[in-house]
Amino acid sequence: MKNKSVVKRKILTVVIGLLLLISYILGNIEMGKLGSKMDYVNLLSQGDENGMTYSLAESAHQRNQQSDEPLQFVNWCQESGGRVSYKELNRMEAAEIMAVYGRTDLLFSDCEVMDIENKNGCLISKGLAFRLLGGTDVVGNILEYNSREYEVIDVVESDIPLFVYELGEEDSSIVLDRATMICIQNSPKQTKAAYDKVAGMWSLVDYQMIFYGIKIVYFIVPWMLGVGLLLSIRRYKNSARKSVVNRINRISDDSIKNYLKKNREWMIWEMIMFLTLFFMIMFTVIQIRVPLDIIPDKWSNFEFWSEFYKNKQESVLLMRSMKRGVVDLGYITGFQRASIIGVISIVQAWTLARLIA
To answer: pLDDT 10s per residue in the chain (357 long)?
Structure first.
């Protein structure tokens, strides 16, 4: 019965170990995708009066080009209820309308690039392509929106019906209330400050804060396994040491006693335990990446943390209350998937650590 119990425990350990490995790999793939999104900073205008019309966006981009270190950014907005038509099939569909001023690859990196020079092109989502044209092989087709014709340049991977076009002078009533740009020096705070100089005061949509929060989950999993492994090694070490002592006490021959004293198996286990702890510490050092925004500019700046905490609170409230566009949903969906896989990995790691400890 005891042997059967041991076998069952070993099988369970292997099964949970394999499931954990799969979960951890899938989670890290998802975190890798999110990590590439952290190269971008997203801002929201503080009220409609600080959003940008076509002329203001044009001026901001010109000021940016004249600066010593120009940013790479795009202004955009998204509105519901637009109507896009395809005359050849006499079809019309409701869609989310995204007006942009700047390079669209900052929003949709997998698509062909549109910029301010391309006023007659558009991007449409996979969802709108199926509804309007019956498939995704639609590049080159002419669509109509707001009594103007646009040629489809590429298709965005989204099931939400979406139509993306470059803002023109005739769209003077449209206010661009969002901005997306490449992060400078891995610091959203510095990036926002640089953008504010050319475009006025905007609010930071701090997705990086959520990303690092989820990353902690994936940092905990190896440590849980490491602790379980250390406890298991300690158990083997104590068992080996006790076995040597017991054998010495039962034997009268002095030469055998001396041999057993020198043959200290428990010391090998102790070395393995210290090596395991060393690799755990090295893993921690390699994995830790402290964002610049949580490092005070001066160690004597005692108000830094209270201001930091206040800014994070404001950022959370902003993200809860703001209208979410297709770009935001890309972040949120990724965070949800990574969080779910991370929680599953922690449960599996906890179970496995208890089995091997």
So the answer is: 556 777 787 788 888 889 988 998 999 899 999 988 989 999 998 754 568 899 999 999 999 988 888 999 999 999 988 999 999 889 999 999 999 999 999 999 888 888 888 889 999 999 999 999 988 889 999 999 998 999 999 999 999 999 999 998 888 889 999 999 999 888 888 899 899 988 888 888 989 888 988 888 888 888 888 787 777 777 766 676 666 555 555 555 555 445 444 455 556 666 766 777 777 677 666 666 666 666 666 666 667 667 777 777 777 787 888 888 889 988 999 999 999 999 999 998 888 888 876
Q: Residue 181: what are its φ and ψ, rounded to 5°? A: -150, 165
Distances (CA, A) of 321 to 37, 41, 44, 50, 53: 22, 18, 12, 18, 23
**Residue 167 burial (10 A CB sphere; 0-12, 13-18, 19+):** buried
> Are residues 146 and 137 in contact, defined by beta-carbon separation less than 8 angstroms?
no
pTM: 0.79
CA–CA distances in Å: residue 251 to residues 138, 240, 243, 247, 357: 87, 17, 13, 6, 32
Q: Is the dihedral of CA 293, 297, 299, 304 positive or negative?
A: negative
Both tokens of 272, joined, read 């393995």
Side chain identity, residue 99: A
Radius of gyration of the chain (CA): 29
CA distance 346 to 83: 46
* Contact (CB, 8 A) for 318 and 328: no
Picking from 92, 91, 84, the residue whose alpha carbon sits closest to that of residue 123 is: 84
Q: Per-residue b/e over 319-346, b at no fewer than 16 CB within 10 Å?
A: beeeeebbbbebbeebbebbbebbebbb
